[in-house]
Write a structure and sequence with these properties.
This protein is of the alpha+beta class and 364 residues long. The chain has a single domain, classed as 3-Layer(aba) Sandwich (Aminopeptidase), CATH 3.40.630.190. The chain is 44% helix and 17% strand. A hairpin with a 4-residue loop joins β2 and β3. α5 runs antiparallel to α6. The longest helix is centred in the N-terminal third of the chain and has 38 residues. The N and C termini lie far apart (103 Å).
């Protein structure tokens, strides 16, 4: 008779198998703890060195991909001694510089009127910015108008851009304020909508309904107290003008600060390539790519959103052949002196007070 009983493993072999299984289990547990520790350490290090990691990503990922787009936006002023052939590679320790910000309604190949005109002084070392808003209807001499057929030599300042683009705007503002302009930056309002939407909107301090009631004006309505406003709403916010030019220019300054704040969002830093691509043809400047990248890096990672001091040129409305804003000569002179103070690298921070009138609005 055959014995069908299976042989039982020897006790020693059984113990060996169990011991090996136990050791494998202990190794897996140990490995799991190591992996968990590494992940936890990485998370802690990422939090501690978040700024450094983001700066590394900006320098090695964002900057190289954005640089091409910024180079395409480069458009120097005409060769009359105003072009900046050399731009500082770094902002650290640099002297203050001036920048003319122009918001236009340009369509196709037209120059378009400049709806927004802001003379800006940037003090990188102090992380401070001065905004001097010039009402679009300001009556002034247009420099270079004599060379343009049909152009008026004295009219609203926003016509300078329609006559001769950024160059004529720069020349006209320099003459008005008797102050130098090193750089300009033009943004087409029609590209503003997509840029703001790419930022997932912006926060705006709208506490009352904003609505055009004049039937001759474009239809416009913005609801108050929303946490985030879309690109379309932001465009309406900066263009609304049924209250006053003072309020309108104040909204433009508030909007610029809101965009700078929004750009510091981690998601938006990662998407800066797409954002710059959207800006594309809607943005022109004579600032070099490396200069703008250094400026963006300083705003985002180093000094934070700059402290902004604002002022709007004072004047009064007057009707002749059309409505004009007649600038107050004394205020223009005071503004000139204020700009000189801000442009002087030897001016102490404590001296950067607003001396151009009661309408100066710090931190707006």
């Amino acid at each position: 008779m055959k014995n069908n009983d299976k042989k039982k493993p020897a006790p020693e072999l059984n113990r060996t198998v169990k011991q090996k299984a136990k050791r494998r289990k202990q190794k897996r547990k140990k490995l799991g703890l190591i992996i968990l520790g590494v992940v936890a350490a990485a998370g802690i290090l990422s939090f501690i060195f978040r700024k450094e990691l983001m700066m590394f990503g900006f320098d090695h990922v964002v900057a190289p991909t954005v640089e091409g787009t910024l180079k395409n936006s480069y458009e120097p002023l005409s060769d009359d001694g105003k072009e900046n052939t050399e731009t500082p590679a770094s902002l650290k320790g640099d002297s203050p510089f001036s920048l003319l910000l122009l918001g236009t309604d340009q369509r196709k190949n037209e120059n378009g009127l400049s709806d927004s005109i802001i003379y800006t002084v940037v003090r990188p070392e102090d992380n401070k910015v001065l905004f001097v808003s010039i009402p679009r209807d300001s009556y002034t001499k247009i420099i270079g108008a004599e060379d343009v057929k049909g152009a008026r030599r004295e009219t609203k300042i926003n016509a300078a851009h329609s006559y001769g683009g950024a160059q004529m705007s720069v020349d006209t503002v320099e003459n008005l304020l008797d102050a130098p302009i090193q750089y300009y930056a033009t943004i087409n309002f029609h590209g503003l909508v997509d840029v703001v939407d790419a930022l997932d909107g912006v926060e705006l301090p709208i506490t009352k309904l904003i609505e055009n009631k004049n039937p001759a004006h474009e239809k416009l309505r913005i609801e108050p107290n929303k946490p985030i406003y879309s690109g379309k709403e932001a465009l309406m916010y900066v263009r609304y003008r049924e209250d006053s030019d003072f309020k309108r220019t104040e909204r433009q300054r508030i909007f610029l600060k809101a965009v700078m704040d929004r750009m510091k969002n981690i998601k938006n830093i990662a998407n800066i390539k797409d954002i710059m691509g959207i800006a594309g043809e809607n943005f022109k400047t004579n600032m070099k790519a490396d200069f703008m990248l250094d400026l963006a890096k300083q705003v985002i990672f180093e000094g934070g959103t700059p402290e902004i001091t604002s002022h709007m040129l004072q004047g009064s409305d007057k009707r002749t052949d059309q409505w004009y804003y007649i600038l107050d000569d004394e205020d223009v002179q005071n503004t000139h002196e204020l700009i000189e103070l801000w442009l002087d690298p030897d001016t102490a921070v404590s001296e950067l007070v607003t001396e151009a009138g009661d309408n100066a609005l710090p931190n707006q």
